[in-house]
Amino acid sequence: MQWTLVIPLKPLVRAKSRLAPAAGGLRPGLALAFAQDTVAAARACAAVNDVVVVTDDARAGAELAALGARIVPDTPRAGLNAALAHGAAAVRARRPAAPVAALNADLPALRPAELARVLGAATAFPRAFLPDAAGIGTTLLSAAPGAELRPVFGAASRARHTASGAAELTLDGVDSVRQDVDTGDDLRTALALGVGAYTVRAAAGLLTVD
């Protein structure tokens, strides 16, 4: 099964606000670098047909389009879940039978092979999700052909996606797909896993890995 990934990205001036204490003025550049590494890894995944990024940020849109993503404006401008639903609808308008998965834009350590394992496991369910490394949120939500995405990202989204009827994917060895970055500690963990080239450059000298 070949998936289309929908990746939401806030305007860079507002993205990754919880990183501000650790990153200061580098925060917008880091948010872009995370997204670039996420898109680059997703595009390199054998299970991925294409990548759609939902964003109104002109700079991010241009940089991510250069990596092969299709940019869809965030027309609803009503938050993360509305952006994801809009992106999924744009995908299905062109390819009604496409399997769709929402993926966080802040996975700078993402490995194509690990993403392929997660998407492979998701094919067994109409809707499925992968919890984040903290075990509270969600980094990926999938919808098979004929199923609506129905995203409920946000606080405690693991519990909310479970309540929505999505199956939880329980996989070992996919840390790079679970490790989103919201805080300085998250970034240290991602750096220890090994981040992509864009984040390496953007984070140079910012944090050290103990």
Spatial gap, N to C terminus: 40 Å
CATH level 4 superfamily: Spore Coat Polysaccharide Biosynthesis Protein SpsA, Chain A
Broad CATH class? Alpha Beta
Computed CA radius of gyration, to the nearest angstrom: 16 Å
Task: Output the strand order for the largest sheet.
Answer: 3-2-1-4-6-5-7
Helix content: 25-40%
Q: Which structural class is indicated by helix and strand composition?
A: alpha/beta
| Unreliable runs | none
CATH fold node name: Spore Coat Polysaccharide Biosynthesis Protein SpsA, Chain A
What this model shows, in words?
The protein has nine helices and seven strands; from the N terminus they run βααβαβαβαββαβααα. The mean pLDDT is 95. The protein starts with a strand and ends in an 8-residue tail after the last helix. It has 210 residues and is α/β, with parallel strands linked by helices. Strands 3-2-1-4-6-5-7 form a seven-stranded mixed β-sheet, sandwiched between helices. The chain has helices at 20-23, 27-43, 58-65, 80-94, 112-122, 157-163, 175-178, 184-193, 197-202, and strands at 3-8, 48-54, 70-72, 100-103, 127-131, 138-143, 167-168. The longest helix is centred in the first third of the chain and has 17 residues, at 27-43. The chain has one domain (3-202): Spore Coat Polysaccharide Biosynthesis Protein SpsA, Chain A, CATH 3.90.550.10.
